[in-house]
Amino acid sequence: MNSGIDLQGTFIKSVMDLGLPAGAAKAIWMPLPMILMVIGATVGVLTCVWLERKISAAAQQRIGPEYIGPLGLLAPVADGIKLVFKEDIVPAKSDPFLFTLGPILVVLPVFLSYLIVPFGQNMLITNVGMGVFLWIALSSIQPIGLLMAGYASNNKYSLLGGLRAAAQSISYEIPLALAVLAVVMMSNSLSTVDIVNQQSGYGILGWNVWRQPVGFIIFWIAALAECERMPFDLPEAEEELVAGYQTEYSGMKFALFYLSSYVNLVLSALLVSVLYLGGWDSPIPINLIANWLGISEANPVLQVATASLGITMTVLKAYFLVFLAILLRWTVPRVRIDQLLDLGWKFLLPVGLVNLLLTAALKIAFPVAFGG
């Protein structure tokens, strides 16, 4: 199985072949990842918001949006336009600089994390050797923005909401990192491309979800808590009159918090797909299908079909996880703050540590099965 090729090197080489120096090629490349990242994440958010409305409507046996464009597809666009034109109000006694910086610190690391997500074998913006570590480092910045938003509002409710959000994010960051470390230990790499390649070749039987079932459950629970999804939406529960750290925000600053939540949900679903569900790998190995049909693996048509199928598999797996997250919103009751912290510190953390130690022991005992 070939390793992933990052688009940066391919693009720069193509531009240099036209006669431009390496510096100019890099300067041309720099804005492109950001544009691709913003477009991809924005489309993902719009789709996720539409799915939230339709799946929630189906769960409650109602129709949902259908008049704002075909099947209600333009409802998320209407929401975005409405928030763009809403008045941006800054409280008189707040800290204007920190009040503005808070939402930026919440949403920016999530967008940057898309740089290391492989959508297909040769479809990622940059193949960072320490991609998983980079994602964990970026995600640890978000609690600072939440706390900053609550503190800068000069409102006791906002401050308590910010403290509650930061406590929740920190509590679940550690079990999530432990679950990822177990996968990294089996893959012998921090690269997301290497982690997918380690699962490839055996179809559905090679996916990490079978070797790391406990880690998969820990990661998904922690990811839902990080995204502030039900049943862990305590920091800004929609049914509460006081919206936590968002109380004093309006317009696009308010929208950035919700944008961050949905972008983070899509990102988490993609990372679960990459770490545990084989990423772009098909449940039935492509080379096995090619052998059945008598097609050579060097056939260009087969290579194009394999690449297209890989991207489709990544997106479908992520969609399935987003569907589960939305469905949980209407099936699981919200936990109390003490239950939330107990689950993180007293249950997921020790279970995550035991899972990591057990993975290390199994890696030594069964090196072939556990990536020794």
**With helices defined by DSSP (H or I, 4 residues minimum), what is the helix count?**
15
Distance between the termini: 18 Å
Main β-sheet description: none
- Which structural category fits the helices and strands? mainly alpha
Low-confidence stretches: 1-6
Overall 3D form: globular
Q: Number of DSSP strands?
A: 0
Strand content: under 5%
The radius of gyration computed from the alpha-carbon positions, rounded to a whole number of angstroms, is: 22 Å
Assembly state of the chains shown: single chain
- Averaged pLDDT: 83
Structure description:
With 372 residues, the protein is mainly alpha-helical. 66% of the residues lie in helices and 0% in strands. The protein is built from 15 helices and no strands. It has helices at 7-17, 22-29, 31-59, 75-84, 96-113, 131-139, 142-152, 156-187, 192-199, 208-211, 213-226, 251-276, 286-293, 300-328, 337-365. Helix 5 (96-113) runs antiparallel to helix 6 and helix 8 packs antiparallel against helix 11 (213-226). The longest helix is centred in the middle third of the chain and has 32 residues, at 156-187. The two termini are 18 Å apart. 40% of the residues are buried.
